[in-house]
Amino acid sequence: MNVFEAITQRRSYRGEFQNRPIDEADQNRLIEAARWTPSPFNVQPWELVIIQEAEGKEILADITQQAIIEQFKDSKFLDDNSRWMCLNETEWQDRGDGVLLKDHVTLPKLLQNCPEKLTGSILKGLLKNAKSLAIVGHLGAGKMPAKEIATQVREAPLLVLVTMNTERCPPGEGATRWMWLSMGMLIQNMLLAATSRGIGVQFVSAPLESEADRENIRQLFNIPDYNEVITLLRIGYVSSEGGSSVRLKPSEFVHHEKISN
Ligand SMILES: Cc1cc2nc3c(=O)[nH]c(=O)nc-3n(C[C@H](O)[C@H](O)[C@H](O)COP(=O)(O)O)c2cc1C
Questions:
Q1: What is the CA radius of gyration of the chain?
Q2: For residue 197, how far is its CA from the centre of ligand 1 (angstroms)?
Q3: Helix, strand or coil for residue 146?
Q4: DSSP structural state of residue 224
Q5: DSSP class per residue in 156-198
Q6: For residue 205, how far is its CA from the centre of ligand 1 (angstroms)?
Q7: What is the best residue among 14, 80, 205 to mutate for testing ligand 1's pocket, by most ligand atoms within 8 Å of CB?
Q8: Is the pLDDT of residue 109 over 80?
């Protein structure tokens, strides 16, 4: 697979993984891809925590589960989400951005069997009113998706906590921004290397959304306080085709010479 194929064929993998560990050669490949990431002044601010034992997976699964239950009770969070949540595939393809709700949570059976149009209008009604959805959240609506995603975290062959050592900081006022840029590049390098080896990766953001959870994770995994926990990746050999994805057209984001008003 050449680089362009890896870039365009990479997908966020939310399915089940094959039930086998990532072999050593492939782990080394991912680490090597991370290692060659560019960084300002070559400071290489990254530190990775590779988790393969059940204990670490269990901790992260529990924090993920609780975080999602809380998110479902938070009307602001739900409101912010609804802007990017597409309810049916046609709308999603037309928009070219956002995520498809059913890729993220298994919908209740009743809705799964509904025609797409009807599901769309039922969910739209719910999502339009984040306050009412938050009430449903308080009644426990987040429990099912929380459990589902936590199980995926618990059962992943490999988890990686990507952290940034803020002591390895380049000179200048923009230091932190440049370091963050570099961290993004590191993650993409890993994702592309993974794609080329039939390895799927999913970002799991829920356990890192709140300051309190990040702090908790930092302490439980012995991560020094000058390291920022950037993301959690769930990794394994794929067992099915990656999902589909959409993008804006070049004409919607490329400008020539100036951005016209
Ligand atoms: C910083 C960041 C956080 C993300 N968090 C999540 C997440 O928590 N759960 C998830 O399933 N996907 C997550 N994603 C994946 C995006 O939803 C995905 O990249 C986007 O929908 C485009 O789909 P694609 O990666 O398959 O092309 C995240 C991606 C990024 C870059």
A1: 20
A2: 20
A3: helix
A4: -
A5: -SEEEEEEEETTS--SSTTHHHHHHHHHHHHHHHHHHHHHHTT
A6: 9
A7: 205
A8: no
Contact 228/169 with Cβ under 8 angstroms? no
Of all protein residues, whose CA lies closest to atom 29 belonging to ligand 1?
A: 203
> CA-to-CA distance for 7 and 188, rounded, in angstroms?
9
Spatial CA neighbour of 138 closest among 61, 208, 67, 71:
71
Query: Ligand 1 centroid vs 9 CA: distance in angstroms?
Result: 14
pTM across the whole model: 0.92
Superfamily grouping for domain 1-60+147-240: NADH Oxidase (3.40.109.10)
pLDDT in tens, 206-229: 999 999 999 999 999 999 999 999
- CA distance linking residue 94 with residue 11, whole number of Å: 19
User: Domain residues of the chain, as ranges?
Assistant: 1-60+147-240, 73-141
